[in-house]
Amino acid sequence: MKNLFNRLFTIISASAVLAGFAAQPAFAHGEKAQEPFLRMRTVQWIDVAVTKTNLAVNDETVITGKVHFMTNEHWPHSAAKPELAFLNVSAAGPVMVRKASFVNGVNMVNSAKFDLGADYAFEIRLKASWPGKWHVHPMINVKDAGPLVGPGTWVEVTGSHADFKDEMKTLTGETVNLETYGTENNVKWHVIWGLIAVAWLLWWLAKPLFHSRYAKVKAELGDTLITGGDRMVSAVVLVVALGLTYYGYSAAEARYPVTLPLQSATATIPHSPSLVEGVKLVLDRATYRVPGRAMEMDVSITNTSSKPFRVGEFNTAGVRFLNPEVGVMDELTKQYPSYLLAEKGLTVSDNTPIQPGETRKLHLVAQDAAWEVERLSSLIYDPDSRFGGVLYMYDTDGKRLITEVGGTLVPTFAGT
Ligand SMILES: [Cu+2]
Fold first, then answer.
1. CA-CA distance, 325 to 320, in Å (whole number)?
2. What's the pLDDT tens digit per position in 228-276?
3. Which CATH class is domain 183-255?
4. Distance 406 CA to ligand 1 centre (A)
5. Which fold has domain 31-166?
6. 45 CA distance to ligand 1 middle (Å)
């Protein structure tokens, strides 16, 4: 018995020491917890880039990119369509301030309807507020479907938050710092109403409570529970509350004669020129090999464009599997977050160009640890185990043609 305790003690101490060595600060903020089908079958993030990743407090950076909404064929039935959606940013709290955002040049201060199958170019301007190392993602919040998070980039902010200023000019020509504007007034009114509420509660709580009151009500002496003093205090509180409300209203009117309500209209956005063109794709079969962390696709690709092309990339949920044979390491790709980039992740059975009008059957293998690390492979345990993504073709002029791919994904558990 003693032996067993000794052994247990050793195991526990060893684990504690190991845990101490292995413990890493937690960086993730929940993006991987989102169901893979939502990340793979709703929107595809294309050419996402961040202009500056090292900033001082008050510096600005811009996230740009394109977003492709999957067509109805791939968009999950269980997720609401983007009838009302908002371009947003996902980060670990309000560490940056969004100064402006645009979709195809339209101001995205409001929400908008997005169309399935359509492409949009977006731009989000951010200003650094808190020092630290932040993981910043573009994100689209779809009403009733939730947040659809794009690829995250590490942004490092130095300096002190005390220096942060978020100044802007109002329509009446006044320059205000939004970081502190109205805070004093806000705190003052909360304290005033809080004190009144607490005093009101204390007045009643100071009296004998439930049992004695219940007994009096039972004895039909309920009316005696409320005294003349209670009536007096109630009247005073009523007058004070109404008076303060009136005073607050007229003081605000006098101080801010011109006010506009928050704008709640929805924006109308034109589509970008379609990125999806020149390719017809039929998925014959897709499997996910669990031991090899590889997705295999048998596809028939028809070139409906006017130039020969080759398959260069498979992109899903922000993870990019590149075909090294086709060489798509452009500037944007070099800056892409490395944990989402499988540089040699895509193998294509035949890399000779597919001629215009030709239909070719190809076997594609998208293999990388990212399937597990990004928790996309858990898709195979879903009751509706379907995947989605986009394939990039590059023609002989270097032009990119994009096509959607998706369908049922069958897991295989044996072999390597
Ligand atoms: Cu993140």
1. 15
2. 999 999 999 999 999 999 999 999 999 999 989 888 889 899 888 888 8
3. mainly alpha
4. 25
5. Jelly Rolls (2.60.120)
6. 15
